[in-house]
Amino acid sequence: MHMSLEILMEEHRVIEGVAASLLTFVGTLEEGTAERRATLARYVEFFRGFADGCHHCKEEDLLFVRMIEFNFPKEFGPLAVMNEDHKQARAFVSSLAEVSEARGPLSGEEIEKVRATAGAYVELLLGHILKEDNVLYPMAQQALPEADVLDAMLASYSSFEEKAVGKNGSERLRALADSLKNEYPPRLGALQPAACAGCSGHDERE
Fold first, then answer.
1. What is the CATH number of the domain that holds 18?
2. Over the stretch 5-21, which tens digit does the pLDDT of each residue have?
3. Residue 196, in any domain of the structure
4. How many domains does the chain contain in total?
5. Model-level pTM greater than 0.85?
6. Is 71 part of a structural domain of the chain?
């Protein structure tokens, strides 16, 4: 597969790791603790900055645009599904952000909201990643000329990321991902049941 698409797949692995860490984190929440809001805010920062700003927006503004130019429909089919997933993902992250930005000890109601939202968000991400890794990206590899389109897309990644998250922003967000995973280690196999549905190759990627 072309390097431009391999990079997007590698970003999926980073996102999966933080998604699994998020599940570990929400499992530790207890009513009456205020400091966990700051940690939740760090997850929000990662998902907004890296998963959306660096990754989803890169797909929407670069890959999807080129696929549309090569006769992939925008209003229905894979691109419509991917864009709707991105929209729903942003709504979930905004819901998590509302809790992280509030003040005072976490209430039981807030904890339940965070747990439900995080679970739904991670489930959405896993299904979305599977569809892209196993359907959309192979379709793009087959349909888009490497020399004219994919090479140019790859060459624009650095400038796109700098515009989206600032100079060295991608590296900072990857470091944030590592920090979150160290503090709240992803549970072994936490993502596997959902992630492997219909995907015989997931184990080889782990």
1. 1.20.120.520
2. 999 999 999 999 999 99
3. no
4. 1
5. yes
6. yes
